Amino acid sequence: MITVSEALKIIDKIATFSMQATWDNSGLQIGRTSAKINTAIFALDLTKEAVEQAKGVGAELIVTHHPAIFHKPSSITDGHWQHELLLECAENNMAVISVHTNWDACKGGVNDVLATSLGSKNLKPLDKETKLGRVGEVPVTSLEKFAEKIKKTLNLSSLTVIDAGKKVHKVAVCGGTGIDYLDEAFAFGCDTFLTSDIRYHEAQQGAFGGMNLIDGTHQATEELSLNNLRKQFAKLSKLETYLAKETRIMQVM
């Protein structure tokens, strides 16, 4: 058994909160720092599914990747779906800690897991200042074969692929919405960039600029790393931990 305060310190060892972006809101979202924890559940988001599963296993802590409170609210009521879940957590004595851009950026986090799972070697941060994203090298392959590997790795039935006519070798990845780092990927001389939430004009910039773009969906590119976070936390905390089973938001029928 540990306290919420001790859980925060453990997470800070894994993915120090000092690495989070200035616009982020990682950390304790709701709960008493002195509250005791025996069981924790890990989820990409604070959803009804995650809360119900936490209640089912008797968890006193939910650790999410995306902050449950992103923009500072003027009130927390049942008029907003996620605020209602925060109220439910409070009523059931469950704390919520979010580990967002610090988990994206740190060693062993979202982008390290995403890159290494695809066989990338010689990894470097895509953005040198924030440490977000990764650039690495894979054995030269076709875009089609690389896309199939991504589908299998991320457990996706389909992908959005923008073919710039390049073989795949030097690959940039950025879990979640990382297309803002397209210029950085070009500067590294990458031929392929895996991220998500790619918009039309960014797709044009990639295709006509000579870089393959692959949209692996926001959810799939990030949730791959959750089990690594859970394992590290379990090892340091000695608590019983679980992964939440969350519905895929983007599905092709």
Short characterization:
It is built from ten helices and 13 strands. It has helices at residues 4-14, 48-57, 81-91, 101-105, 110-117, 143-154, 182-187, 200-209, 218-223, 226-237, and strands at residues 2-3, 27-30, 36-37, 39-43, 61-64, 95-98, 121-125, 134-141, 160-162, 168-177, 192-196, 212-215, 240-243.
Summarize this structure as a short list of keywords or feature phrases.
253 residues; elongated; 13 strands; 5-stranded mixed sheet; alpha/beta
Strand content: 15-25%
Derived from helix and strand composition plus strand pairing, the structural class reads alpha/beta
Would you tell me the overall average pLDDT? 96
SSE topology string: EHEEEHEHEHHEEHEEHEHEHHE
Number of strands: 13
The strand order across the widest sheet is 7-8-10-11-12-9
The backbone outline, from C-alpha atoms, is elongated
**What portion of residues is helical?**
25-40%
pLDDT under 50 segments (min length 5)? none
Count of discrete alpha- or pi-helical segments spanning 4 or more residues: 10
Q: Could you give a short account of the major beta sheet? A: 6 strands, mixed
Radius of gyration: 19 Å
Distance between termini?
44 Å
